[in-house]
């Protein structure tokens, strides 16, 4: 993840919205601060997204700007921002092995799940050995118990029960680099590539691969999961991001469509898997 946490842009957007509210009321920052009983620097910090307003702050701001009718909408936006970002310390408080069951209800209620990954095989498509290698990296990176790795990998396999059922339908897009990044060694990767080829033939499961060297109409980016058109989830080294904002969802739907147009499927995807297998044998 480059720059700041993804929720930071949403904080700045809320600050901009509040700033426009102030301008619409023809108030200076100093006058708004006076009406709210705040120090004038608080106005600047909120408008620039460096300080999050409390719900009481939002009510006072809107009232001072004669915009009480916007309070509910602004508070709803603020609450969503608070829920957007979860750092890994908080995310893994329940333990890696228990976290694997956290989203099962979401999977069950979704009709279409779209997944893009540029660096590794998505959890739904992993073998237990590949998952164990990935969790070992996570545990060492975040100081988590290595004793939980085997259980976490085994528990991750529970989500596979949704594959091939049509509830939900899956579309996966993988960069060719996701097939090349070696997790766990040659034997683990060979098993993973075999399984990827096998799962690609399941009904209601579409696996597309964006080949290396293809002229890009859209550059590779960080992985994401789209659940219908209602929820976006992304994971980064330092934490996890999610949002239900319609404008963000619409943006990522367009991104997914652009990436899908660059992918190959079916036998052509099988050629890419075989190329990854040959590269692996050469290591």
TrEMBL record:
Any one Gene Ontology molecular-function term assigned to this protein's record? DNA binding
Q: Which InterPro entries match?
A: Cro/C1-type_HTH, DUF5753, Lambda_DNA-bd_dom_sf
- Coiled-coil stretches, from where to where? none
Q: Which residues form the HTH cro/C1-type domain?
A: 18-74
Q: Cross-referenced Pfam families, in alphabetical order?
A: DUF5753, HTH_31
For this entry, the protein name equals Transcriptional regulator
